[in-house]
Design goal:
Helix content: 25-40%
Number of strands: 12
Structural class: alpha+beta
Order of helices and strands: EHEEEHHEEHEHEEHEEEHH
Distance between the termini: 37 Å
Number of helices: 8
Largest sheet: 7 strands, antiparallel
Shape: globular
Strand content: 25-35%
Radius of gyration: 24 Å
Length: about 300
């Protein structure tokens, strides 16, 4: 249980949701298998083997949104429709028109959808009711918003808002690289993306950022939009201009802390989850501090 990407949301400190109420609310929107004519189904699934929809360890909660999608590519429908249209033209000696071809595609979709293969994916979310965090493990913001939208439908008006900081990540990262100095607890790695005012992008991967080359780009007016960082020699990640953390990697020195402590897979899951959330809570605090803190309400 190790998150790979972090979409970060804030919760109020007085969050009025207890774990039993949350589990009951999610149960009302649990995932059900897609019906014959349903192209997609969403619902909550068990994030672990505990049997609950809200898995709790040390007052940290884990939930999971399951999505089932029927795999029926439009290219396949067009290909089969084209073959049938050709057969009709040869048999009837006439050309199949656009509307007739469109109707044929729609009929094929209805015919093939019940037999389409189903793909299942899960999106995990960590809720910290003590410190007020909702963190969704999603590489794209669209998947995080899908998760949050379904959560708000299940728990009426779930009060999560995107994390905001006094300094924009882009301006802060540009300053760190220009000054060749990361904030306390962080080191700058070798991945960077810069953008000009004309939206031209320059990317460097596994490239030293200490030379004049990068700072010359900044002097020309480019800003840093993505930057590889390591935190306390425990976690490496890429921070982007939207305050999203991608390619999160828990270094071996951190994972070794739980080696040999678990007697079975369930215990291993809980130990990993406890370790992950404990470290991420400290990481989020340090990131917010490095970005000037959170703006005061109403600011």
């Amino acid at each position: 249980m190790w998150f790979r990407n972090l979409q970060i949301y804030r919760l109020p400190s007085n969050l009025d949701v207890d774990i039993e109420a949350l589990d009951n609310a999610l149960a009302k929107s649990a995932l059900h298998p897609c019906g014959p004519m349903e192209p997609e189904c969403l619902g909550w699934v068990q994030p672990s083997n505990s049997g609950a929809l809200v898995h709790a360890v040390n007052r940290q909660w884990l939930i999971a949104l399951g999505v089932e999608q029927k795999l029926l590519p439009a290219s396949i429908v067009r290909q089969i429709a084209g073959d049938r249209a050709k057969a009709m033209e040869e048999a009837q000696g006439r050309r199949v028109g656009r509307k007739e071809l469109r109707d044929l595609r729609e009929a094929l979709t209805i015919e093939l959808l019940p037999r389409a293969c189903v793909r299942r994916r899960n999106t995990f979310g960590w809720i910290d009711p003590l410190e007020g965090w909702l963190v969704i493990d999603a590489g794209a913001q669209a998947k995080a918003e899908e998760f949050l939208e379904h959560l708000r439908k299940s728990v009426d008006g779930f009060p999560a808002t995107l994390l905001k900081t006094a300094l924009s990540p882009s301006s802060a990262m540009t300053g760190w690289v220009a000054g060749n100095e990361a904030p306390a607890g962080f080191t700058i790695d070798q991945d960077i993306e810069l953008r000009s005012a004309e939206n031209a992008l320059i990317r460097y991967t596994r490239h030293s950022l200490e030379g004049k080359e990068i700072r010359e780009h900044i002097a020309e007016g480019k800003v840093v939009t993505r930057l590889g960082l390591t935190w306390n020699d425990k976690l490496s990640f890429v921070l982007d201009e939207k305050l999203q953390l991608n390619r999160l990697s828990f270094l071996d020195i951190l994972k070794e802390e739980t080696d040999g402590q678990a007697e079975n897979e369930d215990e291993r899951f809980d130990l990993d989850f406890a370790l992950m959330t404990g470290e991420l809570a400290h990481l989020l605090k340090d990131i917010v501090e490095a970005l000037g803190g959170e703006p005061e309400k109403g600011a």
